[in-house]
Amino acid sequence: MRKQSTLEHGIVTRIIKALRAYPHVVVRKRHGTAMGVTGDPDLYGTINGRHFEIEVKRPGDPSSQPTKLQEQRLQEWAAGGAIVGVARCVNDVLRILGLVRPEPVVRWTCEACRQYTWEGADAPARCPNCGHRHFDKQVVAA
Ligand SMILES: [Mg+2]
Ligand SMILES: [Zn+2]
Q1: Could you tell me which CATH class the domain 8-96 is placed in?
Q2: If we measure between CA atoms, which residue out of 40, 43, 88, 41 comes closest to residue 61?
Q3: Domain ranges of the chain
């Protein structure tokens, strides 16, 4: 196991901190020792009883890619049923573990004719029914 860069180490620390907010998640940093398996991912843990393995790479550095061996280890874990992924930030991990909250669904209703509704993050430019440009906003799911 190669020594981690300072940048990668920082992101590992932030990921572990962020995951503490989730009581159904246990996460551990894998320490590189002579007893360890070379290329095994940086983080491992469980979410709702499902094992996960995450390789952490330097943020904002496309040259920082998993090695062939690291890719192989991730595939081994995946074949064993683990959730696996490569992360460069906290959000990557939340995405890999399915912890990212979905965007709220907003329903827009034409203020003028009240006949036209639209669901999406942004209001439509104008009502196709009457041409009005103002819409009532209602959050239907968060
Ligand atoms: Mg790494
Ligand atoms: Zn309208």
Answers
A1: alpha beta
A2: 88
A3: 8-96, 105-140
- The Cα 78–Cα 51 span in angstroms is 10
The 10 Å CB-count burial string (b at 16+, else e) for 78-106 is eeeebbbbbbbbbebbbebbebeeeeeeb
In 3D, which of 109, 92, 125 has the Cα closest to residue 14? 92
For residue 10, the CA-to-ligand 2 centroid distance in Å is 52
Task: Give per-10-residue mean pLDDT for the chain (142 aa).
Answer: 74 96 96 85 97 93 92 98 96 93 84 94 91 93 65
CA of 41 to the centre of ligand 1 (A): 7
Q: Which ligand is nearest to the CA of 4?
A: 1
Q: What is the distance in A from the centroid of ligand 1 to the CA of 126? A: 49
**Distance from Cα 114 to the centre of ligand 2, integer Å:** 6
